[in-house]
Amino acid sequence: MKVAIIGGGPAGLYAAILLKKQRPSAEITVYERNRADDTFGFGVVFSDATLDNFEKHDLPSYRRITQEFAYWDDIAVHFRGTVHRVGGNGFCGCSRRKLLLILQERARELGVNLRFEVDIDDESRFADADLILLADGINSRFREKHVDHFQPDIDVRTNMFAWMGSTKPLDAFTFIFQETEWGPFIAHAYQYEAGHSTWIFETDPETFERAGLKGLNESQSAARMAEIFGWFLDGHQLLTNRSMWRNFPMIRSKRWVKDNMVLLGDAKASAHFSIGSGTKLAMEDAIALADAMRAAPNIKAALELYEHGRREEVEKTQHAADVSLVWFEHVDRFWDFDPVQFAFGVMTRSKAITYDNLKLRAPDFVAEVDKSFARRVRDSGFDVDADRPLVPLFQPFRLREMEIANRAVMSPMCMYSAKEGVPTDFHLVHYGSRAIGGAGLIFSEMTCVSRDARITPGCAGLWNDEQEAAWRRIVDFVHANSAAKICLQLGHAGRKGATKLMWDGMDRPLEEGGWEVFSASPLPYFPDSQVPRELDRAGMNAVRDAFVAAAERGERCGFDMLELHCAHGYLLASFISPLTNTRTDEYGGPLANRLRFPLEVFEALRAVWPSHKPMSVRISATDWAEGGINGDDAVEVARAFGEAGVDLVDVSTGQTVRDGQPIYGRMFQTPFSDQVRNEARVATMCVGNITTADQANTILAAGRADLVALGRPHLVDPFFTMKAAAWYGADETFCPPQYLPGKDQIFRNSVRDRQDLEELRIKAKPKTRAELKAEATKPLAAE
Fold first, then answer.
1. Using an 8 Å Cβ cutoff, are 399 and 561 in contact?
2. Residue 147: which of 290, 64, 255 has the closest Cα?
3. Burial class (CB in 10 A: 0-12, 13-18, 19+), 749
4. CA pair distance 634, 675, nearest whole angstrom
5. Per-residue pLDDT tens digits for 333-381
6. Are 390 and 383 in contact, with CB atoms under 8 Å apart?
């Protein structure tokens, strides 16, 4: 077999090593346009898990690499005169040049041909090769040459960054957040060998311009950074090596394989430096390709196996990197945070690390986080213990005069089980059991304000006396048997009305028994959906009045809170999104016009809803579709409702148009809640694939939301919140007297279960290489 590898970086060299080990008789040649000892950048960083992978696949190179590493266990966050150190992370740094020389040496030992200072721009010279690996880096000429086939998506990010080095020794992965007269600068720094550390400087484009960095050469830029971070550099110089300021390109490729050619490393996909995964991804690509070559019967099948098997892991890493880079791009959102909360946000920014995970690694730091959170709650007027605080999820919260005992919320979820809009015994059990289960606040499903406002024939309503009586029965039960507060969510389906029950075909039009539907514009949801009638002024008045009448009924029912549904493509949302509003009158066009009618409805509700009771609004913070609402628009929407008197913004996303492309994942909508809360300066509730109390604590402690709504966890476990309270020792959580023996038992058992699980996790966690190195160098005790 003959293999040509274009690019002598970590991806190309490691692939050569692994393939040559598999097939000693293969002719494998690596072509690199630079000299053998040329390298750009300074150090690379790997986690212990990545090194475990290297150890498994090629022990000789692993041993040489680890002999050269600088190890550290801590992450240090410097912010506003404070330093927070968080241990248990297990990172290792190595000189990029040393890494390349080690891989070159190992490749030669195995018989790989290495050819340097050879510039390849045409794959036709390898017509006799069985396999061609394209590992020519982030600016891959082959990816661009075959752009129509590989179809790369290149997202050039806004922040400016420059990669430099220093002689400053470091004993932790160090983040420095520095305020200057021009704006914030960030340093990401780590030691990679004795006397040398990598420094990546980052700032937003406006600060970059104000600081006069545009047009400076390398040495001038280094001098400016030395001025800004000189207090920390302590006289150590900054080093440059092609250290020019640039923007980071996030690269995704639709295809990785063309004929017998395959993209590896940054050529196919990049991951932002803030999670330190570029070289890791490149070398793990080589591992995945070698594994596929071993498992498949031929090269074509191997390349298919590589692409399909590897893509999910790469995309997961890229998603974490995306979330992380956005956090750094918008660090000014958090600049007024308490320093310990800020540091917690740094640690949990990519969602890879959570509250519980961090508590095992750094219990003292998380104890500080809890105390800081409790102090802010106490400052808001609650008499809470800030010395021995409860976890964030079980801290109280106030909206106007409504106080809730904890921040766990049962999300509004349509049950599609009403009879002509009347809630049934099913609803009584559904809402009653979740309230007894301990949630601080429960939401009704979207309750329709008129018969023609329903999504389906099974939707609940509040337009007649029978419905009002049924809802009053539910609210009375909740108040009599729990400490939960209950919110009424009112909505109008708009163009998504007259559709089948969810389990019969979600959003599919009824085949018979339908009703006329309305929207901002006459655009059907599906091509075969009913074309909605464009709402005129008389129709708007009728809709507004129906909302007001339903709110008045809701007050008579005794609901504690009212929410207006302006999300998910329903009627009011259809006015807000430009994808569903093509009007040319005063209710169409710019966002301010598109908001006019939803705000009219909200203001009418606020006028009749008691002033001491709070109101919220549910919004779709993005349509997940080109040309639709985005996060910046959501901030403006939230501000507008805030000025109209809203107390809470319930931040959801999507479901506006059928061809939206949501990016799912754990807590996938939380970044939008984060943006709305910290830019619009309004209280928010987040929702969306939040499944554990651990995740809820993470979101709250990091300041990304004020309340956390959980949907599906409450569907299968009415006592989700009570179980979480037992787990975290929140023993003041209300429980009806009939259930107290069960509460006592789960609280007793949870203490032991939590201790057992934490001990098991600690025992199962392998020691980091920093810990192993410390043990190996520890002097023996005197006998």
1. yes
2. 255
3. exposed
4. 9
5. 999 999 999 999 999 998 889 999 999 989 999 999 999 999 999 999 9
6. no
Indicate the helix (H) or strand (E) that contains 535: none
Rounded-to-integer distance, Cα 50 and Cα 768, Å:
12
Q: What are phi and psi of 521, to 5 degrees?
A: -140, 155
Please state the pTM of the whole predicted model: 0.91
Rounded Cα gap, residues 28 and 235, in angstroms? 47
pLDDT tens digit sequence for 234-265? 999 999 998 999 999 999 999 999 999 999 99
Q: Is the pLDDT of residue 781 over 50?
A: no
Out of 2.40.50.140, 3.90.1150.10, 3.30.470.30, 3.50.50.60, the CATH code matching 2-330 is: 3.50.50.60
- Specify the 3-state DSSP secondary structure of 143: helix
Measuring CA to CA, which residue among 126, 124, 234, 156 is closest to residue 189? Answer: 234
User: Given this model, what pLDDT does residue 42 score?
Assistant: 85
Average pLDDT over every residue of 675-702: 96
Residue 730 tokens, joined: 């929140």
Q: Give the DSSP per-residue string, 345-364.
A: HHHHTTSSS-HHHHHHH-HH
Containing H/E element for 675?
A: helix 670-680
Q: Which CATH number fits domain 354-729: 3.20.20.70, 3.30.420.310, 3.90.740.10, 3.90.940.20?
A: 3.20.20.70
**Do the Cβ atoms of 663 and 624 come closer than 8 Å?**
yes
Q: Residue 54's closest CA among 42, 68, 41?
A: 68
Are the beta carbons of 561 and 616 closer than 8 angstroms? Answer: yes
Mean pLDDT of the region 693-702? 97
Report the pLDDT averaged over residues 723-732: 94
| 165 neighbors 241 (Cβ within 8 angstroms) | yes
Q: What percent of the chain has pLDDT over 90?
A: 84
364-377 b/e (C-beta count within 10 Å ≥ 16 → b):
ebbebbbebbbbbb
* Rounded-to-integer distance, Cα 533 and Cα 494, Å: 9
Domain ranges of the chain: 2-330, 354-729, 740-778
Say how far apart CA 397 and CA 404 lie, in whole Å.
5
Q: What is the pLDDT of residue 765?
A: 62
pLDDT grade for 616, boundaries at 50, 70 and 90: very high
Question: Rounded to an integer, what distance in angstroms lies between the CA atom of residue 550 and that of residue 491?
Answer: 10
H or E element, residue 730: none
Residue 152 phi, psi (nearest 5): -70, 145
Phi, psi (deg, nearest 5) at residue 640: -65, -45
Q: What is the mean pLDDT of the chain?
A: 93
Tokens for 430?
A: 């559904």
**Which active-site residues does the annotation give?**
570
The string of DSSP letters for 611-641 reads: TTS-EEEEEES--SSTTS--HHHHHHHHHHH
C-alpha torsion sign, points 146, 152, 158, 161 = negative
> Which residues, other chains included, contact 198 with Cβ-Cβ below 8 Å and sequence gap of 6+?
41, 42, 43, 45, 93, 163, 164, 165, 189, 190, 191, 192
- Give me 247's structure tokens: 């923007």
When comparing pLDDT for 68 and 193, which is higher? 193
Q: What is the pLDDT of residues 550-566, one digit of tens each?
A: 999 999 999 999 999 99
List CB contacts of 38: < 8 A, sequence separation 6 or more. none
Q: What is the pLDDT of residue 759?
A: 79
Tokens representing residue 757 in the block = 């699980």
Within 13 Å, how many C-alpha atoms sit on residue 780's CB side? 2
Question: pLDDT band for position 780 (50/70/90)?
Answer: very low
